[in-house]
Amino acid sequence: MLKIDEDKTGLKFNIYVQPRSSRNQVVGLHGDALKVKIKAPPVEGAANKMCIAVLAKALNVPKSAIEIVSGQASKTKRVQVRGEKDRDSHEEIERLKQIIRLLC
Q1: Alpha-carbon distance 23 to 40, whole Å?
Q2: pLDDT by residue (tens digit) across 33-89?
Q3: How far is 18 from 11, CA to CA, in rounded Å?
């Protein structure tokens, strides 16, 4: 089960990245993490950049709203997603949680 931590700045949760996949997509759960398949190889940050782009598209937020807070060189990463500043923070956090649950 995916554990989502919430604070006033947004949400934090784990992702599991599968590099060198045939498609870029969020495919569900991998243990306690959201599984993200990406085409990019794990070389010189390419996988991290692609991962952020795939998550941003899936969550309908700008890429700048997503940050990898730990696990930059690992397949399992901790990400933080900040809500859009022009939206009510509580409503935005609930919207993001709902989308993440649908992706699981």
Answers
A1: 9
A2: 999 999 999 999 999 999 999 999 999 999 999 999 999 999 999 999 987 665 667
A3: 22
Q: What is the CATH number of domain 5-103?
A: 3.30.1200.10
Give the Å distances, CA to CA, from 103 to 22, 44, 46, 74. Answer: 19, 28, 23, 22
Give the separation between CA 71 and CA 76, rounded to whole angstroms: 6
What pairs with residue 12 in β-bridges? Answer: 5, 80
Q: What is the chain's alpha carbon radius of gyration, rounded to the nearest angstrom? A: 13
**Looking at 38-75, which runs of residues are DSSP E strands?**
66-70
Name the residue among 14, 10, 33, 29 with its Cα closest to residue 83.
10
66 contacts 57 by C-beta, under 8 angstroms: no
In the numeric block, the tokens 């390419």 are attached to: 46
